[in-house]
## 1
Amino acid sequence: MNEVPVLIVGGGPVGMTLALDLGWRGVPCLMVEETDRILTVPRANTVSARSMEHFRRLGIAQYARPDCQRTTRPTSATAPVSVARSCTGSRCPPPPKSSPAQVVATTVRPSNPRIASPSSISNRSSSTTAATRIVHADFLVGCDGGNSLVRQQLGAQLTGTDTVFQAVSTYFRAPALNEYIRPRTWMTWSMNRDALGVTIAIDGQALWLTHTFLPTDTDTDLIDPGTLITRAVGSEVPHEILGVDRWTGRRLVADRYGSDRVFIAGDAAHLWIPMAGMGMNTGISEAAHLAWMLAAVHAGWAGPRLLDAYEIERRPVAEAISRFATGIGEALLDLGDTEVVEDDSPFGISSRQQLGRAVAAADADQHKPIGLSFGYHYYGSPLLADDQPPPEFAIGTYQPSTAPGARLPRLTLADGTSVYDRLGRDFTLLRVGPDPPDPGPILRAAAERAVPVDVLDLPSEEAVERYEKLLMLVRPDQRIAWRGAATPTQPALLIDRIRGGSRVG
């Protein structure tokens, strides 16, 4: 017998979320992390609504929210203005007081049962070497970042565009910078002959983060980050540099997400331009996805092909998001070539304001990605009993749907609670309306295969209008697996399908 059911490599937000979700589902795990995870430069700028739904389910949303408080910076400016002859504009949500990536890691960490610090991963058979100790596990999950050792040993390859741009991120303290930015905004773009980048207010007072984007052939080791701050602001400003990251913008997605007992998630599975924390939030949903599947295997009710569907369902989502994020970045980079007049004449001011409006328009979608949280679906998955496709997935829009593969639309119950708070940890059969069909055949078929199914009655007229069908089977990840106006004629086949009993692919 192996020592632990699941071994997680990597203790960032994705690995921590996986550890917590497995624990919430009663699955012991061991997480190994080789660093103290203290970030010198803030990463990610948004915890998405979907991630907060996961955190609410896991009981940590109330801890994460205070650490992601908003500053008094406005969410939009009535018109983009010029700052130090640099074009700026903002139509963004207000900022967190600290890095969301750090907030997630520090929030989840105390709940993780076991953490170790390995020196290396020894092989693909789910073992690691930590000093002289060998750990044997049923499953290995690599949440170990862009240079993932687990991905390398899995034999998966990153495919896509290896270099979109070079970048330098500079985290610094500069209280006086507030005097240069008017109106006071969260995100200020600088576009002139000397600089192309964005400066983000971290705490709304003295802490700032500047991302400077450079041509693909730039050797960023030769660039002084202090000079980049001056170029972005347009003049010298007193500052103290707190941390520097030199990195490459990419659009890469792994060609495989797993095999047998080894899987990857988060940056180990995909790398793209960091827009609105999309990489972290996508990884958090991947962790939640893997958690319920691994828990099903651990409990003994999963079919032999359940885990095959992890890649089938999640990889297309990552591909779509990677193209969207890269599209935003490339559109902004293209605007950097726009010619503007850099004097303070009426024409010069007008030309910069015109560019600022174009920047705000190009950048807006990363700050309202409602489709990223709620709109993607798993239509065509072998775990679903499809009857029609959900609305087309688009990052910036969301149309609620009860089609199999879609997220269960939100519903507030008569007592004021959310329907999500009433769902079971495994499958939940919703009985909609005042006189729904008998759930007995479905429940008996599930019991024969030891698949846990809770029943939730929703008799209200609002539920009927919202959900349309009288019966809906909801998965542990709040995705709709099946819906119908009556009990299926072959409930055993339905249960086999949703648990991965049928061959996938």
## 2
Amino acid sequence: MHLQVESGLSYEWLAGLREICFNPEWAPLAYEEFRLKEYGRDRGGTWVDEIPDGNDHSVNAVRYAMMGDVLRG
């Protein structure tokens, strides 16, 4: 599977979860990354179907760790 397709699938999978819990005292950076992550906007302020890259090390670590579940559906 192509990396960009897997990336999109894993973000959709995470977005479909009822909740993602982090203890802000134990994992403050991960907590902030997930709290602030959102889809991008175009110049007019309209939401686009793309997650901007950057400040996402914890998000990516969780996506990669869960990729087996994502691909199994």
## 3
Amino acid sequence: MSRIIGLKFREYGQVYYFDSGAFVVNKNDLVIVNTDQGLGLGEVVLFTDEVPEELNLEDIKPIYRLANDEDIVAHRENTEVAEEAFRYCRLLVRQHELEMKLVDVEVYHDRGKMVFYFTAPNRIDFRELVKDLVKKYRTRIELRQIGVRHETQMIGAVGNCGQMCCCRRFMRKFAPVTIKMAKEQNLFLNPTKISGICGRLLCCLSFEQESYESFHRHCPKIGKKINTSLGMVKVLRTNLFRESISLLTETGEEQEVSLTEWKEMAAKPSKRSGTDGIEANDTKQDEPRIRLKTPEPTPELPKSQDVKDAKDTKEAKDTPPKGKREKDKRRAAAPPRPPREGGKKTPPKPRRKRKRKFKPTKPKPSDG
């Protein structure tokens, strides 16, 4: 009976899924499979009856055959070739004076290809390096640049917790980690505390992020003032492990309540405040309330009085202001200007040409 098995081609590599087909396969067995790069030798690490979500049943291919003694001997020889190629490549990097750091070398099972993993701050021109490697090993050479996280995964290191890094032990894919996760988990934003060996944020911050998100959905926002059965309280902090909330009461005392008690307190707000459980940012109970008086209705005037007021308003709009009236009077009293001679515009005066001053040049001394 065929089963879906998970294979690893390297100790810290990603898990790939294949169909066992007609072969009887046990855990930790070595099998030969067909890949896009040729034949590969993988180790069985898990069994599953369900197809992973990211794959379709058509994408899962059957294994080629079980590994024999010759395949195991070839695998050991490839390991020795990879170690020797690592030392030789580092020597070439020094000779060509390239700013790159070689991390690891991988040799395929049929030696049809060799992959050199390296890190570098910038792009590297390694064409001459590839030519020297091809002359030495007579196979396809690939230089693959990786990041600092993959470098730590390949080399391995001891983390801040005192154990081997998670990426080396069991992680196969890197999940995105943001500084927002550290803030939601109430951690000190100290780079030395929340960063790993690789210099990036700790991968373990994403392990408990789902639990923190579900807990914060039932908690009020930190810093808010809310009317409860204890009166107006301010939320100071939350604690996931205790499932509690720390509050600051009106008397200045800090009180810690469980999540169940908080829901009961928020459901029964105090009657002294008129907010009825609504969140308040800057409201204070002791401040006096300001009551606005409603405007009194204006008395109705008789019809004749309304008509008279409308006429006065119209006349006031039509009459110009006092300063404008005086200006119009001065213009009317001024005598008219005399007409110009001939009724034509006087031609402009011709511009005087400036005389150019010539400076006498000194005679050049003769050569004789």
## 4
Amino acid sequence: MAITPSVIGAHLLFERDGRIPLGKRTPDALYAPDTWHVPAGGVEYESATASAAREGCEELAVIIREEDLELVHTVPMLDPGGDSVPKLQMFFRVHAWQGSPYIAEPDKCSELVRLGLVANAAGGLHPHRAGRRPGRPHLHRTGLAGRRSPVPGCRAAHSRASRGRDSVTVREGSTAPTVQGTGWCDIAGPGDAGTDMPQDLRRWLMAQCGQAVQVTDVSWPRATSRVWRVRCGDTATTVYVKVAPTARHFQREIHTYRRALTGLWPGGAPRLLADEPRLHALMVSALPGTLVHHLPSATADSRAIHRAAGRLLRRLHGAALRVSRARQQVDATAHRAVTRSEAHLGRAGHLLTREQRELVHRSRQIVGDLASRLPVAWRHGDFRPRNWLWQARGESLGVIDFERSEIGIAVADLAPLAAGPWAVRPALREVFLEGYGRPLTEDEARALPAFTALAALDDLQWAKTCGATDEAAQAHDALTRLVDAHRRAGSAARLAHSRRRPT
């Protein structure tokens, strides 16, 4: 008996509050074009859970751990004619993820909406909504490929919903979802600050851009992040609305947009379109590209990305040359950094080893001693890949999020990179400095590990407050590497001293 090959598909169910995101496949999609379905893809040379996690990253730009996936149903599929390869569709419920879903592959998906499931849909959604574990699979016979969605009951949407103007509800036994005219369509994941935009912010938004066709919560998974992507109906443009966590954060961001970003090339940063001090709100233009944080760490573009990041940061840093009394401001920010690290030690010191606490104390001393001799810059304040957007075509990089931006010490902006990607791939540091246009001074080379230690402590305190275990582990790793480097340097110095000693 001949062995018949089969195709395995992995499907993702991001359910929250009884609703899941569905994407509309483009008309030229290879399978089921111009139909609606949950994020999905074929299993390649990997486990089904690894494939599902990869599809979530590729299609919706979210990070999923395999242990947060639960197989809730399987659907064997076979065309009536029997001339198609049999398929096994595996549906996974996603219990947790990082980031807020958005269309990361616009060439494959044209629309994204949240469907409110008020009753059981067919196919893979039926046992999932019933809360049952996967049991005996049933054979689902499809029509011709491309005519129906793999999940019947979710294959079509009302024309208004396809334009993103309404939320959609699937009702039992219906192949075309009915529409409830809310005027808002937003998507969110666990840990988001909340998809509901405050009423006063909505009113301000409507005054700025007229009818909002689609509003999507794209906040980072922490309570202080409140960001929405808005598609404005009157102009068919996309903008971002952000509410700063404090008045100080708002003032720094607005000041940076108005004073420092004029020297960047087009596309290097968003444009400030409007602001409302009373709400700590601002509206900015959208930047093209993909967040570098969502790209594979070993991407072939890594060197080009870091070289472009160096060029961009040098431009931003140069804005400080146009600011009078910049040196006095630097002294104040350096003092705040040292003071803040002391407060963090009081809150998170019990999470550190003795050697790590000693490292932080030495780093505070080094920063205080060298601050007056270090070059001044208009710092970004959080310059790391999660705030970079990359366009491979043209090798163009843009940067977002300026709520921590202010006049300060230039080398301090490199600390998140030294604690993160440069620790894993040291060659990226040299490529970055090539783009930056100058090497570090002797004082900067000595100060960078100290700033890196203080930045890692800052990240650890933030992770402790937000319950971000992955970020806490990364901060611990950075501190451990710095302790090991200090230990090796001490051993090398003692060895060199012993060799110089007369026999």
